[in-house]
């Protein structure tokens, strides 16, 4: 069984032409149903998270402003999304989906959030389409409840997970491997265990060689759960990516990460992360390949 949690049932309206492809989540969910990749009983609505749990990663002052719609102009500029009650509900459910996927992974070996991976949210602010940091909150919650002591985070989005690093980098129970495009956002990177910036235009062969080289370090840490931020914006031609992986290269990336988790008998949580290719079908195709590899390896 592979429980997969979705939050696309909660609508968020963005201005016409907005660069964030909010519609991709509904498209992925529909494709999973139409192609019968997962049976219906595996697909579950993500529940909202208690704001007090968000406080494991975010300051109370920031959460108060975020929920009350009191974010300042500069805060909204950095977030890149217009505030709405729908946005807050959706973001809270996205965190809830990662938390539920984490509990599912501990039980079944794998859990999927068909969203999440909001790795640019800092303790005191949101950035780059990320209001709350789902992986940081979920990792700390598992630790707080003594479900695990040691957590691995594998972040393969094209952008460095600066918010996740800022929240968790001093936690001795967490190991972060982050591979991204060096020239891409954020301009100022945040130091973490392995932060590897690759040159613009890096293709499949070099990318996979670097991943194979550094991935074993995660498992030498002996994590009791791994969070895999499986952003597909390293795809060649992605509007915000900068790398040049093919669909097959991304698929092999996913296979390498997930098979390594399976062989090490470490439960894994998948979050979708970024993807900004046009047409939208290219982004959906890449995310669907991640889901298909997960099904192949864990059923």
Strand content: 5-15%
Helix content: 40-55%
Strand order of the largest sheet: 2-1-3-8-7-4-5-6
Assign the CATH class. Alpha Beta
* Number of beta-strand segments: 8
| Average pLDDT for all residues | 97
Whole-number total of structural domains: 1
Q: Whole-number radius of gyration?
A: 17 Å
CATH topology: Arginase, Chain A
**Low-confidence region ranges:** none
| Name of the CATH superfamily | Histone deacetylase domain
**CATH second-level architecture:** 3-Layer(aba) Sandwich
Query: Could you say which structural class the secondary elements and strand pairing correspond to?
Result: alpha/beta
Q: What's the end-to-end separation, in Å?
A: 7 Å
Largest sheet: 8 strands, parallel
- What sequence of helices (H) and strands (E) makes up the elements? EHEHHHHEHEHEEHEHEH
Characterize the overall form.
globular
Number of helices: 10
């Amino acid at each position: 069984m592979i429980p997969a949690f979705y939050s696309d049932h909660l609508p968020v309206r963005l201005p016409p032409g907005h660069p964030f492809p909010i519609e991709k989540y509904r498209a992925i969910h529909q494709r999973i149903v139409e192609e019968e990749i997962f049976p219906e009983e595996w697909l579950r609505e993500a529940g909202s998270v208690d704001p007090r749990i968000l406080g494991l990663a975010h300051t109370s002052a920031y959460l108060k402003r975020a929920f009350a719609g009191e974010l300042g102009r500069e805060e909204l500029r950095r977030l890149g999304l217009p505030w709405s009650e729908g946005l807050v509900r959706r973001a809270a459910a996205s965190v809830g989906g990662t938390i539920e996927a984490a509990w599912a992974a501990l039980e079944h070996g794998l859990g999927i959030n068909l969203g999440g991976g909001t790795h640019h949210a800092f303790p005191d602010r949101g950035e780059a389409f990320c209001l709350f940091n789902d992986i940081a909150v979920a990792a700390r919650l598992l630790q707080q409840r003594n479900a695990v002591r040691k957590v691995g985070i594998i972040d393969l989005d094209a952008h460095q997970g600066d918010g996740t690093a800022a929240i968790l980098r001093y936690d001795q129970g967490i190991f972060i491997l982050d591979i991204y495009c060096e020239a891409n956002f954020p301009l100022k990177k945040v130091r973490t265990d392995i932060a590897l910036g690759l040159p613009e235009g890096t293709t499949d062969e070099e990318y996979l060689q670097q991943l194979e080289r550094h991935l074993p370090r995660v498992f030498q840490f002996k994590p009791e759960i791994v969070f895999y931020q499986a952003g597909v914006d390293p795809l060649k031609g992605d509007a915000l990516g900068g790398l040049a992986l093919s669909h097959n290269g991304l698929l092999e990336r996913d296979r390498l990460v997930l098979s390594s988790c399976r062989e090490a008998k470490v439960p894994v949580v998948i979050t979708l992360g970024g993807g900004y290719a046009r047409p939208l079908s290219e982004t959906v195709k890449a995310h669907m390949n991640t889901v298909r590899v997960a099904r192949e390896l864990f059923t």
